[in-house]
Amino acid sequence: MSWLPLSFGAPMVLFGLLALPVIWWLLRFTPPKPQTELFPPLKILARVLKREETPQQSPWWLTLLRLLMAALVIMALAEPVLNPREKVATGGAGLALVIDNGWASAPDWDKRVATAQRLIADAGASDLPVVIAFTAEKPNADIGPFDANGALDRLRATTPRPIPTDRQAVYARVAETLASMPDASIAVLSDGLEAPGDDQAFQALLERGAANLVWAAPDRIAPVALTASENEVDGFSLTAIRAPGNAGPARLTAGAFDDKGRRIADAALTFNAGESTATATMTVPFELRNDFASIALDGELHAGAVRVLDESSKRRRVGLISQAEADQAQPLLSPLYYIRRALSPFADLIEPSNPDLAEAIPQILDQKPAMIVMSDVGTMPEQAQQRLTDWVEGGGTLVRFAGPRLANAGNDDLLPVRLRSGERSFGGALSWTTPQAVADFPASGPFADLTPPREVTVSRQVLAEPSPDIVDRTWAGLSDGTPLVTGAKRGKGSIVLFHIAPTATWSNLPISGSFVEMLQRVVQLSRNQGNVEASADTTAAALAPYRMIAADGALVPPSPEARPLTPGARNAVTMENPPGLYGSEAGVLAHNLLSSESRLAPIQPPQAQVPVTQISYAFDESSPLKGPLIAAALALMALDTLAVFWMGGVMARRSRGGSNAATAASMFVLFALPVLLAGNALAQDANPDDARPDDAISIEAVSTTRLAYVITGVSSVDAVSRAGLQGLTRFLVDKTALEPGEPAGVDIAKDELAFYPLIYWPIDPAGPMPVEAAIARIDAYMRQGGTVLFDTRDQYSSGFGEGSASPATQRLRDILGNLNVPPLEPVPADHVLTKSFYMLPEFPGRFNGSPMWVEASLDASNTDNRPVRTGDGVSPILITANDLAGAWAIDADGGPLLPTVPPDPMQRIYALRGGVNIMMYMLTGNYKSDQVHVPILLERLGQ
């Protein structure tokens, strides 16, 4: 019946149920063993005339019990399965399994793995070879053929990648392998997204011939991705896309994060019904916008939902143009001298090679500046002026400074206000007026929050013609009400005019600090116009990987597979150049997964001449019932045995002592046997390593000092921890008299912790939260003199504040909330840790910047005797975020396993020295601090 989610592996066995009536007849007319009782002589005489009776049939309840037991055994032998899965038809000479593991597969990767495991299991049941290939792996990755176990190992070792799929190359390799396996079944597990060249890829895959095609695709393309982000004048704009098939309305929240992982802004993205594109703007002050380091969509755990930002969203390219020839002998009189000095700290300055405006303006515009500054530029060539106008209307910011040429050139369209002819002079020999001071900045202008420079005066200026909107266009004015700086919008861009010259001849503003602040504010209001395309003669140094976007959207250190990126070129997102930031702390380049032209289109199943079976991604919810049925039958068998003993009088109170002992032993066997058999049927994968360590293991553990690390359950983290402690062990052997043994991984819930003086605990939120009993064992270990070194490894992911906790920091807080943690403080400069072996001012790891936290001294304010008053005990807890094991880790050849951030060889040396200091501190206590007592001890000995 279709409504019953039950199937049988051997349904023919169910015909055995027809034998139940025969069993019933045999049980019904087979009497039980007669009961024998011992009576005193008087009772024998009293009952001697009573006729002896023997039952003719067993009780009905005992017959029913035995029938039920027989039915359970027959049902178990038929191998029933609850919620059975439907087997996919595979045949031919083998199975070719092609799986998309690009960025779009990350959200439901577990479902895809479960689906692939079922296909491999079906192929293994038929003893078929399996070719397994992934479309986002290295081109030379081994694809088989494997047996079923080898294919499962390859599947479990593969993870989703934050890159697009490369179906054409992978399908071609699979087709070559299938040449030796004619008529094999092909299973394609796609991510549901269309990619360029899919038709040619499927044609190459199917041209070798196939027995059948199994097609799996998501029911709905759920991922929402970010394709563009722009730091504009009025806010930070975002663009997100989704697949056209998602017709319903949707609302998501995007968060902006700084370089420490702190969330500093939000925006809501709304998809209306039928729309596949949504935009939003974060209307926050530009000071915060310039701190944006990444944008991420909440709830979207894939690489397409994250965009990293580089200096192109912050630092601006500014072009400088002047018609005056530079005087090399008098640089202070150059009209661009003070502008260069003011802008160079926070902008990239570019200048034309020819002062001719007909060539200078196009040359500057070709480099796509965010802002152009013109110093005393009068009449411009018509063609160059038109290009400049188009640039401004397209979003550029034009800043002009007055001078003799502009004052006598008349008005043009690239001015925010109309000007009067000539210039106005204050304080001259023939003038009754005095130089004018700068008035308060208008509240509606961009300089409103700046302090007006009271010491600045203006002696010459160009005047604006009075107009109704002159007040709205005035950004700064003089004490007499005339404008000093005016500005106006022009299309998507802006035009700004300083009514003075950029030299100290018209005003002392260019030599004041306010001049720098005003120009910086105008630069921040401008918007970048894009990157300059690399030309044939352009050479740029490759940028090393700095921080990468993982498949789940997290920002992580670069993997060993990442390679340097050449800026300026059209770099695609590949295994060698995954999305993320390239460069160093001095400056980075953003390499994002999707561009503004990207679209998410659903993939179409290929047109094949062979049978096509379409399946959906799902977990295997089938549950074999053979074990529970056998356990139930054994339990009924135990009840039946007890009933027979009871009816036979074995359990009578007046039984002799020997009978009682035999009965007890029999009942123990009867009860223990079903439990053992049921446990074997239900838990066949019992771990033999769960046994407690014997005496030999204990003796070996205490005979050699060993470093230990906590097994987190995350294989990649545990591998780095082991490699890190191996590297530190080797360094200790080389540099000190200590010769530790091999590092040990400990399970804090089961293993004995007292064998190890220091336990390194890397915090990973992906691992399971320790149970209360395990945390209690750690608490006891710390109280008894042991030390735990907690490492959150997130120095570049969060700060230490309450509102800036990374997932690793939050997990550490949850763990410490159940421990008796003493007051903590960063390692003071005179702490024993800084001088136990090496003299160290800090404790870097793979990262640098996080302090090492230790137990606070008894009198932290007394810096003179703090090292002495702490006694000989060591801190039971150390906390860092610098990823110490990542810096200590070595590979099989003894070389560094992971790069440091920043890539500084000395940082790794300092990290190893810090590990030596920690071990010396663990083993010797405050020995170094006790040296302050030496003069007093010598003095007493002398007495």
Automatic annotation (TrEMBL):
Keywords: Membrane, Transmembrane, Transmembrane helix. SUPFAM superfamilies: Class I glutamine amidotransferase-like. The keyword Transmembrane applies. The chain crosses the membrane at residues 6-27, 60-78, 629-649, 661-683. Residues 706-923 form the DUF4159 domain. Residues 6-80 form the Aerotolerance regulator N-terminal domain. Pfam families: BatA, DUF4159. The keyword Transmembrane helix applies. NCBIfam families: two_anch (TIGR02226). This is DUF4159 domain-containing protein. It comes from Aquamicrobium terrae.
